[in-house]
Amino acid sequence: MAMAEGERTECAEPPRDEPPADGALKRAEELKTQANDYFKAKDYENAIKFYSQAIELNPSNAIYYGNRSLAYLRTECYGYALADATRAIEMDKKYIKGYYRRAASNMALGKFRAALRDYETVVKVKPHDKDAKMKYQECNKIVKQKAFERAIAGDEHKRSVVDSLDIESMTIEDEYSGPKLEDGRVTVTFMQELMQWYKDQKKLHRKCAYQVASETHKPPSTSSPPPGLVSFPPPCVSPVPLLPSASCAPRLCLLHGSSWSTTEKITVCGDTHGQFYDLLNIFELNGLPSETNPYIFNGDFVDRGSFSVEVILTLFGFKLLYPDHFHLLRGNHETDNMNQIYGFEGEVKAKYTAQMYELFSEVFEWLPLAQCINGKVLIMHGGLFSEDGVTLDDIRKIERSRQPPDSGPMCDLLWSDPQPQNGRSVSKRGVSCQFGPDVTKAFLEENKLDYIIRSHEVKAEGYEVAHGGRCVTVFSAPNYCDQMGNKAAYIHLRGSDLRPQFHQFTAVPHPDVKPMAYASTLLQLGMM
Amino acid sequence: MAASLRRPSFTACSSPTDTDDEGVRGTCEDASICKRFAVSIGYWQDPYIQHLVRLSKERKAPEINRGYFARVHGVSQLTKAFLRKTECNCQILNLGAGMDTTFWMLKDEDLLPRKYFEIDFPMIYITFVLKNPHPLKLQSLPDKFLLKLPSLLAFTDGHMLDSTRYAIIGADLRDIADLEEKLKKCNMSTQLPTLLIAECVLVYMTPEQSANLLKWAANSFEAAMFINYEQVNMGDRFGQIMIENLRRRQCDLAGVETCKSLESQRERLLSSGWESASAIDMMELYSRLPRAEVIRIESLEFLDEMELLEQLMQHYCLCWATKGGSELGLKEITY
């Protein structure tokens, strides 16, 4: 664990070859006793001072480090606490308290798996110690809690929350006067009532929220798993999703029941980030979603803005109402890591429960990663790939029902950014890459596409055209984080001419709830 | 707005000027809470701040934490440079100090000046003591913390807590005469090289009032340095929004005119009697941080959008000015 800048002099012990003189050992013990007294009196910095002096006289005593580690914990110097605990263990592998201290430091730093390893060690050494067992179990509970397990990016197959929910037996109290599903179905009335209900800052009953979220999760009734690459228009011929064949008419075709209806345009929106009132404004400006007014929302629906619950349930609601005319693509914020830090998890837990968050997390894993319009325009949240030669078929084959890995095509689709210069560079974000115009051109040519639409980056004008028109960014959260002052935009694509038409809009007022109002701190868990 | 010469007493908590300043006083707590939060995540070490302010239940955004890291780092670097140049034979005046812990941090590093002064609105200190009346809590503070219950009465009377190395003064920085009087009562020297620090302070008074303060500082000491941290580049959209957001919280950036650019920030120092002045924006400072430190702090929390950090940092600056002290080489101090 890297130390803070400029190690304090107390911590820098030079290696010693000769053992300390007898007098020094005695004095060190005296200092330690004094330090302990300070500690008992809660005077932690004097405790630290005196432990440090003891260490200077006798640098090989594990207990001194262990005790100082605890004093550092009390003063929230977790990095120092960890370093001292580690040293204590190095000095004496049998010093049980050392493992305790290191576990506590790791807990405070949110490194629960590391903490668990140390608690495991303690339990092994002291199998009958109740306290050890309890700490291990508590830590284990945290680790096993799906939210944290996912944060460490596990691949294991998890038991589905959807499957374990018993929504039927949930009851809605008589006093609840808000929107309800009709016979378990989303209707136009429900959506209208929902949006008004939300506008008035009221809460949708949890049963309805569970219904909407879990219905969204249900795969469509086809024999194959839901497509990671959604085609638009949807397949005209067989139930198995395929790219539309060349015989499809150039206009946007939409399948509605068994009859065809052609439509004028489709609207593509970028990040909305929990800005519910701005989402309502989009519907105000551009019309509510319908079979004749289809929408694609290109990821990052939640986090940052503090109306994320309202945004996501509204979007899910429309998805259920118009499954073939309302599409949601996954963004990098539809993941556990992001939700933990940037507020969505906290908001769901505050407004509902942890289980509800688990459900959202699971639904996010089902979201497709990309959408292809008329075989010509590819839409994804982040961008293109860290390697050459990726095809649409490759995208289709991605095993996407998981948290995104640290690298690879799934990660790139959610995280990458365009850059002005040719080639690829390390991403300023620290994950995935930045790709140049040549990369875009090659990808489009190989896959016989015209251009890509992506989002993921805030733009002052709400959109940006790069790579000679081949890489379009659209961002739909105006005055992002109540700070940036940016315009937002959405794109119209018409079947007759797939060139993007940009429509800008600005922020509307919203109730006084700051961005990230629900982002909670991890540190309230697992302290000694 | 005319500076009021009214001295806030313990009981009179609601006069017009008091309410006007309430928004500004609120920023003290905000800054301290943000600092404490960043410390709790591990951005830097500060074992004292937990005694002065509560831990935020809300998570602060990663760009905010990184911003505070850069701020604290920058001010600290310049402060220590001054202390080294003067070999601690100096004074530090922390203007608008709020719940600052620098005194204790310097003490731990054996880098204390001859005397350290903290000055802020009396209400800031009174409120602190009122919020922490529980004897056990005060007893748990290290001996050195002066704000014990009995001292409250002494404080509300003269608005000063004085000791050999450390003084806390309740004063309105817009009332120079009062400020000077209190500093004199606390044995401030005009002969010692003096460092004055203002972190997000000047912007809350009018350009005229801050100019007076800067002039007074330049004239009062033989050798001096002034560190100013506050907004810059406020003419754009982001700046406008910040001003509006703060106004909604009853916090008026009365001095935002001087925050137009790095140039205007340098100018206002030079035109107040300071001999040399420098200013850099925080994005520039951030890019000059030692690589190891940057890697360390960037791995503490994942930042989802660099643009947010860049915008934020480009709208804050660190400025410093010196006067005299040529034998000490004060002019050479740089970030």
From TrEMBL, chain A:
> According to its UniProt record, which reaction does this protein catalyse?
O-phospho-L-seryl-[protein] + H2O = L-seryl-[protein] + phosphate; O-phospho-L-threonyl-[protein] + H2O = L-threonyl-[protein] + phosphate
**Where does the Serine/threonine specific protein phosphatases domain start and stop, copy by copy?**
329-334
- Annotated active site residues, numbered on this chain, are H333 (proton donor/acceptor)
* InterPro entries, A to Z: Calcineurin-like_PHP (IPR004843), Metallo-depent_PP-like (IPR029052), PP5_C (IPR041753), PPP_dom (IPR013235), PPP_phosphatase (IPR051134), Ser/Thr-sp_prot-phosphatase (IPR006186), TPR-like_helical_dom_sf (IPR011990), TPR_rpt (IPR019734)
Q: Does the keyword RNA-binding apply?
A: no
Which first-to-last residue range defines the signal peptide?
none
Main subcellular localisation: membrane
Q: Where are the TPR repeats?
A: 28-61, 96-129
The record's subcellular locations are: Cell membrane; Cytoplasm; Nucleus
Pfam families (UniProt xref): Metallophos, PPP5, TPR_1
Q: What is this protein called?
A: Serine/threonine-protein phosphatase
UniProtKB/TrEMBL annotation, chain B:
Per the UniProt entry, the Enzyme Commission number(s) are 2.1.1.233
Q: Which GO terms describe its cellular component?
A: cytosol
Q: Name one GO molecular function term.
A: protein C-terminal leucine carboxyl O-methyltransferase activity
Query: Which ranges form a coiled coil?
Result: none
Provide the catalytic activity annotation: [phosphatase 2A protein]-C-terminal L-leucine + S-adenosyl-L-methionine = [phosphatase 2A protein]-C-terminal L-leucine methyl ester + S-adenosyl-L-homocysteine
Q: What class of enzyme is it?
A: transferase
Which residues are noted in the entry as S-adenosyl-L-methionine-binding?
R71, G96, D172, L173, E199
Keywords (A to Z) from UniProt: Methyltransferase, S-adenosyl-L-methionine, Transferase
Known PANTHER family for this protein? LEUCINE CARBOXYL METHYLTRANSFERASE (PTHR13600), LEUCINE CARBOXYL METHYLTRANSFERASE 1 (PTHR13600:SF33)
From the Swiss-Prot or TrEMBL record, give the protein name: Leucine carboxyl methyltransferase 1
Source species of the chain: Capra hircus (Goat)
Q: Which gene is annotated as encoding this protein in its UniProt record?
A: LCMT1
